[in-house]
Amino acid sequence: MLSIRHRRLVVAGALATLAAGVAPLPAVQGLAAPDAGPTQLSPTFPAPMPTQQSASGRRAPAGGPVDSRFVGRPPQQERSCRPAAAAQPRRSGARLLPRNGCATTTHDRLPLADEAYHHPHAQPADFDAGGEVVHAIFAGGPPPTYASPNWVQLQPAAAPVGRYGNAMAYDDLHQQVVLFGGYDGTTFYNDTWTWNGTTWTQQHPATSPPVRMSAQMAYDAATQTVILFGGSTTTSPAMGDTWAWNGTTWTQLTPQTSPPARSNAAVAYDTQASKVVLFGGGGYTPGVGASDLGDTWTYNGTTWAQVTSTPSPAVRSAARAAYDATHQTVVLFGGQQKAGTF
């Protein structure tokens, strides 16, 4: 079985059939058959086939990232092809990288190849391997395709009171959604809730940020904490404090440099750079009004740093940003410009 990520060939833990039509590849360390120990293979092939001759070019199995709920036995990490030297600690959120013919991911999560191996339906696919095309038949095949996604209203046993302007992020380390604060039209909140896929649970941390709405929050994979910045209320200036949630409590951080106070900024975690990215937002001073911002800041786990880029989006607040793992970029969309009082 073969998988391609970041234009590197990754061979992982299962049977694979290589077809003719590609150039010789170096010996592959750790290609393991079921019930067999690590072996070294030295396949040879005829002349290379140019990438542009491939009908599919470079593509991953249909269906994208694998949902562990697909039909077939629960996936297991193939470890027979991972020598001890390869199992080194890696920063959370790091990209998928080949390790002596194996693929490893954060928290030992399954690489795409291992996941495909366990699916019962095989499917051939061409992969761009740096100027050459490798034709492979997955020992398992890609995951099945599901019906088009739809919204489904859930009925959890417990839930936060209705509100808007709350901050939310997914805590990858603890595998739960974290919700903080917000406003219900009358009351500002500073409560913390977590969602485990079934129900909401209110947390009771020893320390919490002050009440606020429209704060910015993102999971920082480098520090394995949820980072919260800024926010506002209708009776106080916009805030410029930085907090970290470790799954148990909040801790106020004291970075050497911080962005100016704001609320309603766009924020996302840039996995490629291992930094939280924050853009724009709105400053607010009671009795004076609001101001739009158009600056870009990154947080590296210790401090904030302003980034100057040309071109740059126009000043705005309430825009939204997300990390596009396929293109390794942070994507920003929408927002609004405003003037006058809050």
Q: How many distinct helices? A: 1
How many DSSP-defined strands?
Answer: 23
Our estimate of the beta-strand percent is 35-45%
Radius of gyration: 24 Å
Uncertain spans: 1-41, 48-64, 69-139
What average pLDDT do the residues reach?
Answer: 72
How do the strands of the widest beta sheet line up side by side?
10-11-12-13
Query: SSE string, helix = H, strand = E?
Result: EEEEEEEHEEEEEEEEEEEEEEEE
Mind explaining what this structure looks like?
The structure is a single chain. With 342 residues, this protein is mainly β. The protein is built from one helix and 23 strands. The chain has one helix at 112-117; strands spanning 2-5, 8-11, 16-18, 28-29, 40-41, 97-99, 102-104, 124-128, 133-138, 167-171, 176-183, 188-195, 200-203, 216-220, 225-231, 239-245, 250-253, 266-270, 275-285, 289-299, 304-307, 320-324, 329-333. The protein is globular, with a radius of gyration of 24 Å. Residues 1-41, 48-64 and 69-139 have low confidence and may be disordered.
